[in-house]
Specification:
This protein is of the alpha+beta class. It contains eleven helices and 26 strands. It binds adenosine-5'-diphosphate.
């Protein structure tokens, strides 16, 4: 055995000055030949008659809103098979890296951002003749504290603009909540998480107040981002109205959220404004089950519990008999139900458009797993990026506007008679959309808040 080989753990910090990266955590992966780095907005260009590439890197896996602009000379373009078996053409660059005290050159392929947790992989080529991998260890060549990393990346964190933002939610560890907090910090704002259940209020014409667990007064909040769970709508919206009364801008407003959560009311609004939805019947424990089925054109049918979320209360019925049994079962629970024509031609797919401040900023298609018609990710559906049609875009924007939502997830299903609106979500999850499209939706939401606050300030002058 070569005595000169050093031990390397399964994770190590690297420094790549040549492309301006002071620290990036790499996964040591002897299963991959070439090392790779996750990059977005990869654009080739020519510099002094040489082929170069410009790209963005989010060096910290815990803060995807920190973005570095990098560029490097291209030394090759290679077909690389990813771990999921997909062959991808990738640019290859040659860069010197520092790993602890070691300094050496490696080939690095630019891999498009995917679901991968690590921003960089160190492959066999980089390890050969240098290291022996001990996968039980990590950071054998030095570790960084959070403070040290903050210091290294302080130049990327904008100057404080003075905006105080409150994230009103239930669980700060959820992907969407974490991303919104990171994005706000990266844009120079101060953001605090408040658990809805721990907030309380004083209703008073002179000095209304919102207080937090332990009596802390919550004041001076410029903007509130509500991420209210369906079972918290009533209290969460009351709290939002209170924030509004103390001068905070709420994205979205209490009125818009409660309206969008009432599926019956929002469907009536869509109809009123000429937005097509699947033919739908609503009822509270209908006495005449058969007529309810005929009303929407008979089986195959979809039956939904009005308060369904994540596809949990949605069932299909192939025959009128089956539909009758399901409706009768729901009836015995005194549930509010919705009976809807089954859009067979959608083939278990639907589209989720993320609307922020009057623009569709990202769209994905969700495909149900085999034998399933519900495309919800929670029901095993998979998401991929999709280009929507102008009609679908128009529908998504119009639906968000009708409900007065600044941020909305609009679900559309493709039918043989054109796009049909399924539902509009006022607290859309960001994970599926960001991972499938590589778009920093959290940052877009924070930038939309900044725009609103600038406008609000200007009109107060
Ligand atoms: P939830 O609010 O519980 O997610 P949805 O109304 O969005 O309920 O329905 C869940 C999924 O079922 C949708 O994403 C879609 O894939 C499928 N689906 C819903 N309605 C229909 C329909 N009328 N025809 C065909 N598929 C449907």
């Amino acid at each position: 055995m070569d005595q000169a080989l050093k031990i390397i753990g399964s994770e190590e910090w690297c420094q790549i000055d040549a492309i301006g990266i002071p620290a990036i955590k790499a996964r040591v992966d002897s299963g991959a030949k070439t090392s790779s780095i996750q990059a977005t907005n990869i654009t080739p260009f020519v510099k002094r008659n040489e082929n170069w590439v410009r790209f963005e890197v989010n060096p910290l896996q815990d803060n995807l809103s920190l973005t570095l602009d990098c560029s490097a000379k291209v030394i090759d373009i290679r077909k690389i098979k990813s771990s999921s078996g997909i062959v991808e053409e990738r640019y290859v660059i040659l860069v010197p890296i520092r790993l602890g005290k070691d300094f050496f050159e490696i080939e690095l392929t630019l891999s498009k951002r995917d679901n991968m947790e690590y921003r960089m992989l160190l492959g066999r080529q980089a390890l050969q003749k240098r290291y022996l991998v001990n996968s039980d260890l990590n950071f054998c060549h030095g570790n960084y504290s959070d403070e040290k990393l903050q210091g290294l990346y302080s130049h990327l964190i904008s100057q404080k603009s003075g905006y105080q933002i409150a994230l009103l939610a239930t669980d700060r560890t959820l992907y969407s909540n974490k991303r919104l907090m990171d994005a706000a910090i990266a844009r120079g704002h101060e953001i605090n998480f408040y658990n809805i259940q721990h907030c309380y209020m004083r209703l008073d014409t002179q000095s209304p107040e919102v207080r937090y667990r332990g009596g802390k007064l919550i004041e001076g909040i410029h903007a509130v981002i509500p991420r209210i769970r369906p079972n918290m709508t009533f209290y969460g919206c009351a709290l939002l109205r209170q924030f509004k009364s103390i001068g905070s801008y709420c994205v979205n407003s209490a009125e818009a959220i409660s309206q969008s959560r009432d599926k019956l009311f929002s469907s009536q609004l869509f109809n009123k404004h000429g937005i097509d939805i699947p033919i739908t019947g609503f009822a509270k424990s209908p006495l005449d089950t058969k007529d309810m089925i005929n009303l929407v054109g008979g089986a195959p049918l979809i039956i939904k519990l009005l308060q369904s979320a994540q596809g949990k209360g949605v069932v299909s019925a192939e025959t009128n008999k089956a539909a009758e049994s399901v409706i009768n079962a729901f009836k015995s629970l005194q549930a509010n139900i919705l009976v809807q024509e089954f859009i067979k031609e959608a083939g278990g797919k639907d589209i989720r458009c993320l609307v922020v401040d009057g623009k569709v900023v990202a769209s994905i298609q969700r495909q149900a797993s085999a034998g399933e018609f519900r495309s919800n990710i929670h029901q095993g559906g998979t998401a991929s990026k999709i280009k929507i049609t102008p009609d679908e875009r128009k529908m998504a924007l119009k639906a968000a506007k009708i409900l007065n939502l600044d941020v909305a997830g609009v679900d559309i299903i493709r039918s043989s008679r054109g796009p049909l609106l399924l539902e509009v979500n006022s607290s859309p999850g960001l994970e599926g959309v960001e991972n499938a499209t590589g778009i920093d939706v959290a940052k877009t939401i924070i930038m939309a808040i900044e725009k609103k606050l600038r406008k609000k300030n200007a009109s107060n002058l």
